[in-house]
Fold these 2 entries.
Entry 1:
Amino acid sequence: MVVHICCSVDSWYFLQKIREKYPDEALIGFFYNPNIHPESEYQTRLIDSRRSCEQLGIAWMEGDYDPENWMAATRGLEEAPEKGARCAVCFDQRLLKTAELADRLGHATYTTTLLMSPKKDFSQLQNAADRLSLHYQARFIIEDFRKKGGTQAQFALAKQMAAYQQDYCGCLYALRAQRAAQNRPALELVTPLQGPDRLADRHRLYQKREALERAGQSPLLIRQRKMGWHLLKGGLWRLDGEAIKSEILAYSVGRYHLNTPLKRVDDEIALLQKQPGVVLARSFADRHGPSSASIRQALGLGPWDITPIFIVKSLPRGPLRVELEAVLDEESGGILAHFQ
Ligand code: SF4
């Protein structure tokens, strides 16, 4: 039986139940999810689904990551809600490749861990399988392991196995809708030009855990929640449009775009007049750096301050155009630890 795997949270419990119910079947886990965006998120889910199969002694295969085809198939359905028309197309695509693989490998049956997800519509999955039954030999196995406490047992097992817990279904459109409903920017769609890239860091974390476990170690994954600072854009300009080379100090938070006079405090410090904000000469930052907290302390603002601070070589004269879009957001991360 080819078992399409959408993610590791849904896979641990489902694979065990399927094996229990179909003890004579040789199972193959098949990770085919071109819906997942961005690619670093796809890679993290892939690694963790492979881990669940490896630890359960189940063969595992990866399908093509072909998000362009998925995007083309769902064009025009970008705004459809979850459980709507876009999800039907998404299931069609993923189950089609699974049925195709089952036929190619000579397996009589196939199924999907999507059946385990409380947010998926069972009838949409059944309808997709019914359509495929006209074209493929392999028979779809539909099992509802969610009943009788299955969902709770699934989450408890995923927690016990420290599975990677994604916080959105997978596609770009669901992610955007979810973040808009949460009134949070979709930072998963931002790749920093410099500084930490949280999705890449998370991918490396799960990659490292996999490598350590394959080497026979048992690292403990300690989940973290932390505050992240994200600079989306910002800068200083003279009113004639000439850009002023500037750096924005970490944890400068704000959203504004305005022309403002400056009030000079001394040769190194000037204050924006229309919004909280400081323009600082590089000599001051160099003397009190290197950290954002130490520079803020030296200004008397305190280590937890989030006032926007722009660092320039020397203080400009005259009013400025100031642009800033920088947010704080809660992030999940983790560290690997060994306990003797
Ligand atoms: S919300 Fe989930 S199931 Fe629906 S289209 Fe997006 S990734 Fe696919």
Entry 2:
Amino acid sequence: MKIDIRLNSEKDTEKLANIIANEVFPGMIIGLSGDLGSGKTTFTKYLAKSMGIKDNLNSPTFTILKTYEGKLNLYHMDVYRLEDIGYDYELDDFIYGEGVAVIEWYPYIKTMLPNQILSLTFSFVDEFTRDVSIEGSDQYEEIIQKISH
Ligand SMILES: Nc1ncnc2c1ncn2[C@@H]1O[C@H](COP(=O)(O)OP(=O)(O)O)[C@@H](O)[C@H]1O
Ligand SMILES: [Mg+2]
């Protein structure tokens, strides 16, 4: 199932993150793609907030992976620079972990990921507007249905 949504403001992005935060489960994988500035990190910030994570989430570009502790941990990755840093990264610990993995630029490591992911592709429309395409394997069907309502 695939749906396309328009986010007319950050408030809409926050609402989307909120719906998803209500459905998180251990081992969930959310793959984000879209150009720089399209809203991947902003979405993740609101997701963390809605998951009750107290720490401020920031862009992990220079650290690849950052763990935010909460009732469910959030593993935030940005693999944009993985090529520079090298491929020698232990992904299994968090991808099959106890928490929720959110991976910015996930297509870069698609071959290393399970097929069971929820993918969000952001695109820039204008200053405050973004489009997002949401697609997922069977196990994410229900979440996508909730988002579309
Ligand atoms: N509807 C929206 N959703 C998300 N971000 C938005 C929206 N409108 C404007 N923005 C702004 O766009 C920028 C997105 O940056 P960021 O989330 O860091 O993008 P990315 O991680 O994809 O590079 C932020 O400055 C944010 O405030
Ligand atoms: Mg980012």
